[in-house]
Structures
1.
Amino acid sequence: MKNRFIQRYSKALIVFLFSVLSTLAYGQEISGDAANGKTLFNANCASCHKLDKKAIGPALGDVTERRSTEWLVKWIVNNAELRASGDEEAIAIFEEYNGSVMPAFPGLSEQDVMDILVYTVEGQKKAAPEEAGTGAVAGGEPVEPDNTVPLLILGAILAFLVYLLVTVKNTLKRVQGQPTTSLAEDANIITRTALKNPKIVTLLTILIAIVFFQQLYIALMSVGISEKYQPSQPIKFSHELHAGQNQIDCNYCHYGARKGKHSNIPSAGVCMNCHMQVQEGPKYGTEEIAKIYAAVGWDPETYQYIEGYEQKPIKWIRIHNLPDLAYFNHSQHVTAGQIACQTCHGPIQEMEEVYQYSSLTMGWCVNCHRETQVQVKSNDYYTEMHEKLKEKYGEDAQITVEMIGGLECGKCHY
Ligand code: HEC
Ligand code: HEC
Ligand code: HEC
Ligand code: HEC
Ligand code: HEC
Ligand code: HEC
């Protein structure tokens, strides 16, 4: 309890000291209307900035401590102009963010900017005590409480108690005129007596077995996970939400799979078909969707593409990847073979984050070619070839991929 109390008030104190210091350092007081600032911030800045943590742009909760008010006004109204004037701070922060472009806000008056700055300070102050009180950051992610210090104290108290007991016991023995024993000797006697008691031995064995199997289980599970490659993507795009809950057809985004060798990853333009309208998600609010806007240079407020914006493709991390020596063609399987995506990729529509479901080894390809029958009926993709197959093997023959040459090395290797 005391710990929390100190945490809470020391944070508030630090915030207060900082604001006094920053005022002293820059010799100017920021004054303005925090409520108006909040409205302006949410409308113009929240898509890229948060107060307490980095988003597309830096955290702004403590920006007035880092920068002079004069600089901030210039930056916020037109950062490109400030950079063009050769301002070193402006060029440095621009480069730190790899040249991400923050739009200009020529519509904001100096007082508007002051209001926003007052809000960044007030908003941050309000968030701080809450954080310490609930053990959760403003983003809603629970933080593991740090137990190290209390555990160390507990350990020290226990050690002290043991020491105290041994001392008391030895004092008593000395009073009775018996020989005293050291801590090590006591431990020895206790262990030997315990090991003679079958109940204690059984209990110990069970405990050790539990720990052992638990460790074994963890080890085995992690073997499975490392096979299933599942990298974190630059945008928290969820197949569970799009293909599952919202039932968007795989082919809407991966239209390449039916037509050619590769199944494409959709460009940010495809996302924009919906995300011009859908500006907020159920889990991450505007944060993740704002990254699409940052890639294509879209301003959700003015509802326009930012002029002269240099678009940056989203750097999705590739999950499935065969070595160059193997040849795999999607349309051959999806269109001609009529195999569902899920047969090879697993329950993608349930995956919040995609992982590699199949091993993609040669044995995996070959086994399926041995077992799977060619879909000769109602398949207009390879009509001609399939007609010939029917002639050769008969109308109702069970034709496996193997029989059409699916095990020939040259079919899969260049
Ligand atoms: C489209 C995204 C975007 C929007 C909208 C945006 N910013 Fe930025 N902002 C950035 C990025 C990115 C940077 C980092 C510098 C750079 O790359 O130009 C930045 C930097 C800043 C900085 C400098 C921070 C520092 O640590 O020095 C301030 C201050 C700032 N923005 C304030 C605002 C305010 C106020 C608004 C709303 C009126 C706003 N920004 C709207 C993306 C944005
Ligand atoms: C709204 C667009 C969209 C829809 C609909 C969609 N996907 Fe995706 N898919 C993506 C994006 C974006 C990525 C890249 C990011 C990722 O891996 O999550 C991706 C990645 C994948 C990957 C991994 C690619 C790699 O890197 O190896 C597979 C496999 C995949 N999708 C299959 C499917 C299947 C099957 C469906 C239908 C059940 C489907 N997708 C529906 C957009 C979509
Ligand atoms: C066919 C329409 C459609 C397309 C295309 C689409 N989305 Fe979405 N997206 C949605 C809908 C609907 C939601 C959920 C909105 C809700 O439930 O509030 C959503 C939500 C999201 C969210 C928010 C998730 C959350 O839980 O907060 C992100 C991030 C996202 N989409 C990224 C993408 C990306 C990246 C692409 C392009 C690869 C894309 N979307 C393409 C319709 C689409
Ligand atoms: C017969 C198994 C199989 C089926 C069916 C299949 N895929 Fe794939 N998919 C693969 C393999 C193998 C790769 C890796 C290809 C490579 O590295 O060249 C892959 C890769 C991908 C990729 C990454 C981009 C690429 O082409 O390398 C996406 C996206 C994808 N599949 C989506 C789909 C979708 C959507 C469907 C259904 C319309 C589908 N797949 C059906 C086996 C399959
Ligand atoms: C789920 C079963 C399945 C898996 C897994 C699978 N295939 Fe196939 N494959 C088929 C079917 C079915 C066809 C026949 C398509 C048709 O012509 O109707 C086929 C056809 C082919 C063909 C054309 C064969 C020919 O004689 O024309 C090639 C090449 C091929 N697959 C390569 C691969 C490779 C490489 C892999 C592994 C990365 C793979 N396949 C994994 C089912 C599978
Ligand atoms: C159905 C498709 C298919 C057929 C048929 C096939 N392979 Fe492969 N082969 C693959 C794939 C896919 C890989 C890559 C597997 C991996 O990365 O684990 C591969 C890998 C290999 C490798 C490299 C192994 C390594 O460790 O890098 C060799 C060598 C090889 N195949 C030889 C052959 C020979 C010889 C035949 C004919 C008897 C053959 N393959 C038939 C799909 C096939």
2.
Amino acid sequence: MPEFQLTVNQKVQRINAADDLPLLWVLRDLLRLTGTKYGCGLGVCGICTVHIDGKARRSCLISIKEAASGHITTIEGLSKNGDHPVQEAWKEAKVPQCGYCQPGQIMQAAALLIEHPTPKPKLVASTMSTVLCRCGTYPRIKNAIELASKKIRS
Ligand code: FES
Ligand code: FES
């Protein structure tokens, strides 16, 4: 099997794997970064979202080969102590219910705020609706993103 060099949460990792192995399984099974969750495996639910070079990407759709050229950030690497403005806002707005989708929601929201530090409500709604939450936490997600946007700018 070929060897790949991946930068995950600012650490270089050398991994032997088939070149079409999805990044999701590299993270979860080989690197034990289980914060990234499996939902559909088809690019539909958004729950497996991570950042590659600061952009939100569905890790179930990207192979290790494609991911190897970028800097990957998972929920474990978003901040050292869980104190990224989005994470702080999430806690203040008490967003999670069952919690399963929340790593994907947080990673999607953080990527949105990198690109749009003051996103319009329509953009928040359309972006966040791509990450499915069966518990219906979207109203609290919207509030948390407003809060996080303020924190980022203060
Ligand atoms: S598990 Fe990747 S989009 Fe659903
Ligand atoms: S918090 Fe339960 S699925 Fe989103």
3.
Amino acid sequence: MRSSNLILEFKGIDTHYGDLHVLKNVNYEIAKGEIVCLLGGNACGKSTTMKTIMGVVRPTRGIVTFEGEEIHRLPTAERVRRGIAPVLEARRLFPRMTVFENLEMGAYTRAHGPEFNEDLERVYELFPRVKERRNQISGTLSGGEQQMVAMGRALMARPKLICMDEPSMGLSPLYVEQVFDIIQTINKQGTTIFMVEQNANMALSIAHHAYVLQTGQVVLAGTAAEMRANPMIREAYLGEMQVPAAAQ
Ligand SMILES: Nc1ncnc2c1ncn2[C@@H]1O[C@H](COP(=O)(O)OP(=O)(O)O)[C@@H](O)[C@H]1O
Ligand SMILES: [Mg+2]
């Protein structure tokens, strides 16, 4: 049963900012070991979904569970301690710190020990560029490099689930491919991934399941293969025009 293997679940979630009702009775089921992708147009509540998982905003109704336990009332730090790591919009590195210091911050829940060095080596192996730049001030890195540091920092926490908000945003095509390759590698090494992505083509090429949000409501859910075959998705997110029958 899929439901016995869930790592994260939204049950009937509503989220508001003051009077603005953003998420409306949203349900997600993220199974352990999957890459799940959240698609949707501008301002439909994708980032709000990620913020609701991390506890940056609190839902006004409904339940969020992680490994079967309710987490929606817990502070962000406790959610991180339980194994959820964010790679949120704009990357939010500490810009005046070096790359190495940013990676250290990712592991702040643990003291430096053999594990720290192992994790650091793993990050440097996944991101050779990050290793090269380890002593550089983070604010001076390119966008693609900052994204890699942000992903590396998330991995330093040894998370069970990584929540990514638009990991390919603002990256050149070469970096986009690298970032998606690395997401897939991280997943194969055992970490569940929930990501928001505008680049639906790339996202659906590595995802197992996907959800589509429209003005705060889930309008479609299914496997990545079903999504790729869906005419509505092909037209709205994969950049394919529907050819009128008369023109065929
Ligand atoms: N902190 C906030 N305060 C008030 N409104 C917000 C806040 N954050 C987002 N919103 C509004 O909530 C809606 C959904 O935003 P968001 O989840 O960021 O959308 P997106 O799908 O583009 O990531 C938007 O209309 C946005 O303007
Ligand atoms: Mg957003």
4.
Amino acid sequence: MVSDRAPIALGEWHPPGSSRSVPSRLVESGGQIAAQDETRANLAAADFGQLDIAARVGSIPRRVEFPDGSLFETTDNDAIDRLLTERGNVVHGFIHQLERFRPRLILVVAATIALGWAVYRFAVPALVEVAVMVTPPVVPQIMSASALKALDSGILDQTQLTAERQGRIREGFRSIANASSRGEAGYTLNFRKGGVVGPNAFALPDGTLIVTDELVDLAGDDTEMIVGVLAHEIGHVELKHSLRQVYRAAGVAGLIMMIGGDIGSGAEDVLVQGAGLVSLSYSRGAESAADRHSVELMLKAGRDPAAIARFFDLLEDKLDDHGDTSILSTHPGTPERRKAILDYAAELSAKAQ
Ligand SMILES: [Zn+2]
């Protein structure tokens, strides 16, 4: 078929599944759209509605696919756009747009997921550090007071330890608190009957330490071991582990509000979560850091730096409880961890001599 009308666009035609290209012109011919060769013979032809016309992406050559699988390719994007507009096949064009949009949609979704991951991986830790830096001392105090209150009303009971026993532990506690960077005034030691939490010790972000009767009983006559555990808890406070945990739980929005100084509902939520402090377990890294802190503090106070390692031995020997609130779940003890403590204690002791 021969057409005398001006071509819609000039380009190349590729037979189905072939990279061979034939110089071609896209024309309207007999009510159809056709790709013609230089002799104006149809290479392919179809109704406009049967064509698959690629969406415009920058200046990338535009492809018009015929039902037989052959392609007409042109750099004249404007011409193809004009064809689409002229045909005024809005609905058809729109559906095509949607279909063509899918790869881009997938890209957008993938980018969103990647961004979310990046925020979680990098922005949250960064925001946590900023929040920790700008936290006024009153914030951990409020958190800790509310946490202790919640613990006392729900879980913990008054201690049944004798005054004499408490006194011995307190004496050791004072010596390590003194050796710490906050000093003795930075810490308060509380004895409580643990009940469901069993043998445990925890530190609230303001330096409030709690040790349960059950832990003291487990340690028996080895007061040094208890002091080692308290030195470990002091490590968690000095390294601001529990404050970080709460902030991590607060999420990005909460953190931004905190940093922005907006003591509104968001910040309040964060503070209320302080009550959940004791159920938050620390990362392995935080645990080893607190272990090292215990070794350093005990040595500095002239006490047994390896006492905390003995405690983990004891726990594994005597405790079968692997429940969520046991000290083993919040302070997982492993042979590697004990070895790391003993190695570090030996290393520091050797240096000190
Ligand atoms: Zn710990």
